[in-house]
Amino acid sequence: MQEMKQSFCYDIVGDEMVDEIRTVTYDKKLQVEAYRFKGVMQKFPNHFHDYYVIGYIEKGKRHLVCNQQEHWLKDGDVTFFNPQEPHSCEQVDGKTMDYRSINIKPDVMQQVVQDIFGEKRLPRFTPTVLYHSELTVSIKELHMMICDEQVDFKKEELFFILMEQLIREYSDFNAIEEPHGQHQLVEKICNYLSEHFDRAISLDELSDVAGISKYHLLRTFTRQKGITPYSYLETIRINKAKVMLENGASPLEVTFQTGFSDQSHFTNYFKKLIGLTPKQYMKIFVDEATSKK
Hints:
Blueprint: E1 7-13, E2 21-27, E3 32-40, E4 44-47, E5 52-59, E6 62-66, E7 69-73, E8 78-81, E9 87-91, E10 97-104, H1 106-117, E11 129-130, H2 135-147, H3 154-170, H4 183-195, H5 203-210, H6 214-225, H7 229-246, H8 251-257, H9 263-274, H10 278-291
Antiparallel strand pairs: 1-2, 2-3, 3-10, 4-9, 5-8, 5-10, 6-7, 6-9, 8-11
Helix pairs in contact: 2-3, 4-7, 7-10
C-alpha cells in the first residue's frame, strides 16, 4: 500500500490580467493549514473565521479593522485573529499584497495547549498586530516547511517552540512553569540519537523513549543542552559524515548512511555547519592523500 503524503495542497491562479497565486497546504501531522496569497488585490469585507489565524504581511500595505480598531499594516507585521473575531481589510496603496498565514482549529489549539502547559483550555491572543516583528522569520520557516511537505521532526519541533512563545507572550493564558531537572532522561535521549542517527527519527518516537510528552521532552532537552533535539541529531550526523568523507566515501553514499532524507538536505546542512560543501571537504583529504604518494 502506497504511503500517504503528510500534506496536500492546491493552487488557485488568477486571470491573465492579475498575476495572482493562492496556495493552501494542509499538514496532516500538525493538523494545520498554511495559506499563501501572492499578488492579491482583493478587499475582504467584515467577516470572521471559526479557527485561529496567525499570519504576516510579506509585501504590501493593508488597512485592517478588527474589533472596531483600525490598524495600518506593512511588510513584516504579524496578525492574530481569534475564532469568531470579526475583521475586514483592503489594500491602501494600489499595489498587491503577499501574505502567509497558519490556520489552527480550536480543538487542535486546545490539544497544543494541553501538550505544552498541561491544561485543556483555549487561549485568546490579545494583540491584533505585532508591528515589524522578528517572529516573521520563525513563522515563515514553519510555513515553508509545511508547504514543502517536510517530514523531519524539525517541523514539529519548530511548531511547538513557536506556539509556546506566542501563547506565553501574546495571549491571556497564564502558564505554570514546569519543574527543572531530569538530567538522566536527557542523557538517555542523547544516547538514543547517537545510536540511531542513521535512520529517520520522529518526535513521537523520542517521546515514547523518554516517557513524557513531546513538548516537555523538547523543552527539557533544550534547557539542559542549549540545543534542540533535532539540531543535536543533525550535528551528530554531520560529525559522522565528516569522518566518512575523510575516509573517501562519496557525498551520495554518506547522505544515506547518516540518515539525511536527500543529498540536497545533507549538502545544505553540511555547508551551514562546516562552511564547505561535502564535495569540497572530501577533496581536501583526497588531495592530501594523493600528495603523500
